[in-house]
Design a protein that fits this description.
Layout lengths: L21 H21 L4 H8 L3 H4 L1 H24 L1 H20 L4 H12 L4 H12 L5 H29 L4 H4 L4 H11 L13 H19 L1 H4 L4 H23 L7 H5 L1 H29 L12 H6 L2 H11 L2 H8 L1 H21 L4 H29 L5 H30 L8 H23 L8
């Protein structure tokens, strides 16, 4: 039965399919996205080991992650735009090869500075997500588009869930360089992308708004640095205030520039469209909650048992406790697209936000035994899969084909910025509750879970503000 939510968007007419092997192309796209997700998350549990290996301070070592996030956030919308201009298949192959080059640099890095540079190079592959969404929209038969987009959206969480326990095994039993040699799995994926991903329609031949791209890079760098470094600098410190205020001023300048540019990097009227705007707000809030969960669950599992708040597990076991999150994302990803077509993606977005909120509400009250964390993680993963798949589908339905890459790229960036806030807030809350031994008591975790619950509950409200008819 058709409802207004299921009507085709006027801004997104059905494209002529360019591939007779959509399942093969989808496998390549999923492998590309998994490669990126693994690389981003593998280093998280390994940061202390990397600090010891390179004799570096924790602050310096944190740049192994921060540099990657900055690069990915800056590159994602730009790579999406380049894909529209020069061809998505060509750009997908290029960023995967850059990713492999960064993996080799990382594995052979003689110093932490070289390692950080390699991670920045790898971060450019963050553009695989908008490129993948664009390839699906351009090349797949229309009935397969929603399901494929939902699977691609879910695969980031699946890769993250696999990466955490895998990282623990590598740190415990192998040399840390294997954290980076694994990145070379993207090399055969790049070859497959070159051979099997069909060429997409090219843009109109106009150049890229490099001034807008550089200013957006400065905005994201300032804001992300202000957020990620806040726990160490202090939220009210002069340096952190300067970064956050400077980023806000640069954002206003970027908006002014884009509004006056004939061919901007990102059309502001598209971002202001209600569907896109409220989807991005929801992405920020869900990203905040989910990334806070990724930080809190392993720390809680490894926290001292007995008089302490945690379970006293090893890093490897703590990572394994997050596997239900990956399973939840993968299971939901297999049918979320079909359910979204049947019910409308606005409704499945609300459902995803509600499941995410429920998972953190449960963890706020119950987090003292392993099955509490397993259940909370599974529900969180299921909610994230519904939410992220719905967001991508809503955007693809609502914007013109030439805008899909850059607008889905912005949605990914907004989610990353939300995740940076979530991680920083969770870290700050735990530090504020830490005792003289440096271990947060149980109420520290409870407070952090309350914050995540509030963010996910707010996401329900923002999702309800998404129009029922797309293209509005």
């Amino acid at each position: 039965m058709k409802t207004p939510e299921n009507d085709p968007a006027p801004a997104a007419p059905e494209a002529q399919p360019l591939t007779s092997h959509p399942n093969r192309v989808l496998a390549v796209l999923l492998a590309a996205c998994v490669s990126f997700a693994l690389s981003q998350v593998l280093v998280l549990p390994a940061l202390p080991a990397l600090a010891r290996n390179y004799n570096a301070s924790p602050t310096t070592t944190s740049w192994i992650l921060t540099g990657f996030l900055l690069s990915a956030s800056i590159a994602t919308p730009v790579v999406g735009k380049l894909g529209e201009r020069y061809g998505k298949a060509r750009m997908l192959t290029a960023v995967l090869l850059m990713f492999c080059l960064g993996a080799v640099v990382n594995a052979l890095a003689p110093s932490v500075g070289v390692l950080i540079a390699g991670r920045v190079l790898q971060g450019v592959a963050g553009g695989v997500f908008p490129l993948a969404f664009g390839v699906v929209r351009d090349s797949f038969p229309q009935p397969q588009v929603p399901g494929a987009i939902s699977l691609i959206s879910a695969i980031f969480g699946v890769g993250s869930g696999i990466a955490l326990p895998l990282s623990g095994v590598i740190v415990d039993h192998l040399d840390v360089s294997w954290l980076f040699w694994l990145g070379l799995v993207a090399l055969p994926v790049a070859v497959a992308a070159h051979r099997w991903v069909p060429p997409s329609p090219r843009g109109d031949g106009n150049g890229i708004d490099w001034a807008g791209a550089l200013l957006l890079a400065a905005v994201l760098a300032s804001l992300l640095l202000g957020v990620t470094q806040a726990p160490s600098l202090g939220w009210g410190s002069p340096a952190d205030v300067a970064l956050l205020c400077g980023g806000s001023v640069l954002l206003l300048l970027w908006i002014r520039l884009e509004s006056r540019t004939a061919r901007p990097l990102i059309r502001l009227d598209v971002l202001a469209q209600r569907t896109v705007a409220m989807t991005n707000v929801t992405a920020f809030l869900i990203g905040l909650a989910i990334f806070a969960g990724f930080l809190l669950l392993p720390q809680l599992a490894q926290a001292p048992a007995g008089d302490g708040p945690g379970l006293g597990t090893t890093a490897t076991v703590a990572g394994l406790l997050l596997l239900p999150s990956a399973i939840g994302q993968l299971l939901v990803g297999t049918f979320a697209g079909r359910l979204g077509v049947a019910l409308g993606f606005r409704r499945t977005l609300v459902l995803g936000a509600a499941l995410t909120s429920g998972s953190f509400a449960q963890l706020t009250v119950f987090h003292s035994v392993p099955w509490h964390l397993l259940l909370g993680g599974f529900t969180m993963g299921a909610g994230a899969s519904f939410a992220f798949g719905s967001m991508a589908n809503l955007i693809v339905q609502s914007v013109q084909g030439s805008e899909v890459g850059v607008v889905t790229g912005i949605n990914t960036v907004v989610r990353t910025v939300g995740g940076a806030f979530g991680s920083a807030i969770a870290t700050t809350v735990l530090a504020a509750h830490a005792g003289s031994a440096g271990t947060p008591p149980g109420d520290g975790y409870t407070t952090a879970f309350v914050v995540a619950t509030a963010a996910a509950t707010s996401a329900i409200l923002s999702a309800l503000l998404v129009p029922t008819r797309q293209g509005s």
